[in-house]
Design a protein that fits this description.
283 residues; mainly alpha; Lysozyme; globular
């Protein structure tokens, strides 16, 4: 489940349940010497991986812009049990927002590290834009998902005969889901427009966002015992989803998020000369 080589087989929503099972079984049964032969989704270790001055000389212009902020964040949290490797966290930010501090997702996550309002409050942020209709948008989204799930269940359930009544109900549920979808999209468009209009939100402050995102990811790394893939999945889909599936959730968005972050991480490692193109440690 580690970083795939260029000609390897990436994780997909279709194969992730099988991979979770095999990976979990291997961790439980393999002896220490066998476990030591694989990276097992652990962070890359290099003497220069925490040297931000070295990173500044090698990385691109966009990444270099945020290294000073990362440096202050790393100093504040240098005693954390899981000090996240800077290149890994840069890869996370690249996937989350393309380093855009004003990025806002379709569900209200905001900033360079894409923090949700509720998560921001839990992380100690005080200025969070959370109007009354934001909660309504969440409720509308859940109704949309419920109707869609009901429709798909009727369509996918094996039946000896395809009943016309089931097809009619499935169509009705899907139409209701589309109706809720339009309402949900309208509410989140309004939220994005108003948030960008007044900008009084800690998540749009790059330094505060990087600090909060780093603390969150560091805590997730600790909770997942240093497993990058599981920590990334928890960052994207929540720790409950990781626990529910005993591994990466089979959500297309989450699997894609994990794959791309690790791809960017590998690109950075390769650029620094710490990993070869075939995924082996560099010289």
């Amino acid at each position: 489940r580690g970083i795939e080589p260029p000609d390897g087989f990436p994780l997909t929503p279709e194969n992730i349940r099988f991979v979770n099972y095999v990976f979990d079984y291997f961790l439980k049964k393999a002896n220490p010497s066998a476990l030591g032969m694989f990276d097992l989704d652990r962070m890359f270790s290099s003497p220069g991986s925490q040297d931000l001055d070295l990173l500044k000389k090698t990385l691109g212009r966009v990444e270099r812009r945020y290294l000073p902020l990362m440096e202050s964040v790393l100093k504040r949290h240098e005693k954390e049990k899981y000090r996240v490797e800077p290149l890994l966290f840069l890869a996370l930010m690249r996937q989350e927002s393309r380093f855009d501090p004003l990025s806002i997702s379709q569900v209200g996550a905001a900033g360079i590290t894409q923090i949700m309002p509720g998560t921001g409050l839990l992380l100690g942020m005080t200025a969070i834009f959370q109007p009354p209709y934001f909660k309504k948008a969440r409720e509308v989204m859940l109704k949309e998902r419920t109707m869609k799930a009901r429709a798909l269940k009727l369509i996918r359930e094996p039946k000896e005969f395809c009943r016309e009544e089931d097809a009619r109900k499935a169509r009705q549920f899907m139409q209701e889901a589309l109706s809720w979808k339009k309402k949900r999209e309208a509410l989140y468009r309004r939220y994005k427009r108003e948030l960008l209009s007044h900008k009084r939100d800690d998540r749009l402050d790059p330094e505060k966002a990087i600090d909060a995102g780093y603390r969150l990811f560091s805590e997730l790394m600790r909770g997942q015992r240093g497993d990058i893939s599981l920590a990334l999945a928890a960052y994207n889909a929540g720790s409950r989803a990781v626990k529910k599936y005993n591994g990466l959730p089979p959500y297309p968005e989450t699997v894609t998020f994990r794959n791309r972050v690790l791809r960017y991480y590998r690109q950075y490692l390769t650029k620094m000369g710490w990993m070869s193109a075939d995924g082996r440690p560099g010289t």
